[in-house]
Amino acid sequence: MTAVPAPRRPPQATARAWNAAGLVVTAVIALLWLTPLLWAVDTALKPESDTTRIPVTWWGAFTFDAFRKVFAESDLARWFLNSTVVAVGVTVLVLLTASMAAYGFSRTAFRGRRALFGIVIAGIMVPPQVLVVPLFREMLGLGLVDTYWAMILPQVAAPAMVFILKKFFDGLPRELEEAARVDGASPWRLYWQVVLPLSRPVLAAVGIFTFILTWNNFFWPFLAVSDPDLMTIPVGLATIQSSYGLRYAQIMASAVLGGLPLLVAYVFFQRDIIRSVAHTGLSGT
Amino acid sequence: MATITTEAPAAVPVAATRAPLWRRAPAGLLFVLPFLLFYLAFLVWPTLSAFVLSFFNESLTGTRGELVGLRNWTEMLGDAAMWSALGNTLYFTALSTPALVLTGLVMALLTNRVMPMRWLWRLSFFMPFLLPASVMALIWVWIYQPGFGLLNAALTSVGLSEQGWLSDPSVAMISVVIATLWWTAGFNFLLYLAALQQIPQHLYEAASIDGAGWWQRLWSITLPLLKRTTGLVIVLQLLASLRLFDQAYLIYIGSGGPAFSARPILEYVYDTAFTSFRFGYASAISSFFFVLIVVVSVAQLKLFPSRREDAR
Predict the structure, then answer these.
(1) Is B130 within 8 Å of A212 when comparing Cβ atoms?
(2) For this UniProt entry, which segments traverse the membrane (chain A) (predicted)?
(3) Which of A39, A54, A265, B23 is the most exposed place for a label (fewest CB within 10 A)?
């Protein structure tokens, strides 16, 4: 091997060059992607008077003033609580209703089952944003505007989640259910005690994805609620630009705090979140 | 097709008629029912009622307006503001879709290899996706400021001229595209990364033995195997881009941007309904847009039949 003169560079060296180039490109893109976040944190840690100084600097006086003021003056804690109520409520209801429906479509027989499933699947195509006008009218009619219910209920109708869960149930072996049924278990017990425990990974995926979408949802909660006491984080933060005027350090401190809960959750559940988003995102269509 | 056998109603007629309704219904239907109620009340009903409303001249006052037939629809067809808002949405879609799909692909290709600090690169690509739209908008409005804004400061420091990111009508929508690219490229990145991890490693090993370089392996193995994923990602991105509202609304605080140059069609629907209080007219516009989205969705089903495509 060594006797033959290499016409090109040896493959080892080429591979190493490619790897180094790949690493540099990756690092540059990552830096670009991190810069806005770092800049937000950097601004939030400046004294208010330094934020609009030209030329722009990254290093300078350092203070927690902006964070202190946000904690003292804003409703961030309240919005956090509201976001939690809405996101947990929607997630629990989606997990329950969608898994029940998926079980019904996957494991039981009734007249019109296929047609009904077709109608549910067609709903995946409906963009919720085009429904805001009739939905708002409906909420007015039900007297639910400015309640948690107005934010929670419409987001429970998630046909894509039924589709994902049914696909998973379809792939589960039926032997365990058969055995339980011979023992006289009711359909409810088969669902609750046999199928659901076997479905933990997909339930986690659907639950995490639903939680993230609901936590960050802006358009519908923004319409459904105008009472500041009921605003979620995305809706509340939409109001601060006008109320804080040009106090950028304070605005950035609020932005950082508003984005923090999910980022912290991500640090702890990185694997689950990535799997959930990839899995649910791909099979949702 | 194993089925749950419930008592056949014909066999026990007396018991069946006396049992409460929920006992007589087939068990399967009872499982589906709770979801179905939500689905009918908050998805099917609003969809249908948007179409019905579009033939009325209804306003926020609550009383059902009078039937105006097709007047909302004919007004819409001649409404320059509607067409320009639709144009804005299509412009955003045309710019953002290729950018977002390509960026996601490049990010996934780069980090799907063993490399130092891979977790950090992946984290930085995906993190923005977890931020609410309002946080993203606050950060980018700050970055786009004239003079002390980070982006303009960077431009002037390398000798380029400042841009009116938020004030120039010809740039305003591009600013939304850039912010969106930063915000959601991480989602496409994850989809591509998941697809890349499905590719069996032995394909690459075989190719390496045959002397194929990195570039050759990319073109003859990776990209062809990503075809189906790419189809899916494009469709998902197309539909997501067409639904533009949150970022554009939040970055320009509901103003539509300079000379309404960054007002997407959904924001025009919102303005019509909740600023002008014309529910009927807003319903006509959103129904029209809904039909457009359905056409795109159906076209994608024809273009990318997702299940039987595996052979290719």
Answers:
(1) yes
(2) 20-41, 79-103, 115-136, 148-169, 190-213, 248-269
(3) A54
